[in-house]
Amino acid sequence: MRTVRVLLAEDHAVVREGTRQIVEADPAIEVVGEAADGAEVVALAARLRPDVVLLDLHMPVLNGIEATRRIVEDAADARILILSAYDDEDYVAAALDAGASGYLLKSAHGHEVVAAIHAVAQGQVVMDARMARRALRRRDGPAADEPTPREIEVLRLAARGLRTKDIAAELGTSPRTIEAHFTSIFNRFGVTTRTEAVMHAAARRWIRHEGETDAR
Q1: How far apart are CA 107 and CA 191, in angstroms?
Q2: Where are the domains of the chain?
Q3: Closest C-alpha among 73, 79, 55, 72 to residue 5
Q4: How many angstroms separate the Cα of 210 from the Cα of each of 123, 130, 155, 158, 213?
Q5: First to last CA, the chain
Q6: What are phi and psi of 207, to 5 degrees?
Q7: Residue pLDDT, tens place only, 1-51
Q8: 80-120 pLDDT, tens per residue?
Q9: CB count in 10 Å sphere of residue 211
Q10: Would you identify the CATH topology of the domain 149-203?
Q11: Angle at CA 64, nearest 5°, toward 132 and 88?
Q12: How far apart are CA 40 and CA 170, in angstroms?
């Protein structure tokens, strides 16, 4: 089996050291570097060209979402595996939208992390089993593609032509959260653009067509 070259990014030294011991117990994994903040991991990824970056979501200097975007741009061959303490669906969607290939919780067992490293190195997408089950339960309702109330609000504002930052301001949240909502909507509807998403929602009367009066 080809050795998988891994770059670790975790701001807590004791967690980073423990993670290194776990993954290096597998003879097919080599840890080629460690980073303690988001900017450092971006620089190391560009220089070391690892196969997989095992990345904490909340990092100093540069957060894990933005670090993922930059690594994907600068070191396109590297696969990003997020290892986070947070199971919020918006974080998961934002990480995948930024280019991550996997998302595991820090409650995962060591053998699960090792298996996920090998999986993403081979081009697979990996997600924590509990979050995957939650996503499936949400999709198993009477209308599998029906958006959540919050997604309907996002779509209604998008139909008015508002940009991401304007939608975020209108709803009192961050642009990154709005991007995460759009990622969820695209996956739910099976579309790739906002125009398609708005048309899909309007055709099913979840939002009004342009020019109609919204009775709600």
Answers
A1: 33
A2: 4-135, 149-203
A3: 79
A4: 41, 39, 12, 11, 9
A5: 60
A6: -135, 160
A7: 679 999 999 999 999 999 999 999 999 999 999 999 999 999 999 999 999
A8: 999 998 877 767 777 887 888 889 998 899 999 999 999 99
A9: 5
A10: Arc Repressor Mutant, subunit A (1.10.10)
A11: 35
A12: 35
User: Burial code of 141-156, b = ≥16 C-beta within 10 A, e = fewer?
Assistant: eeeebbbeeebbbbbb
Q: Which residues contact 50 (CB under 8 A, 6 or more apart)?
A: 5, 6, 7, 32, 33, 75, 78
Dihedral (Cα; 170, 173, 176, 177), 10-degree rounding: -100
Indicate the SS3 state at residue 71.
helix
CATH code linked to domain 4-135: 3.40.50.2300
Which residues of 1-141 form beta strands (DSSP E)?
4-9, 29-35, 52-55, 79-84, 102-105, 126-127
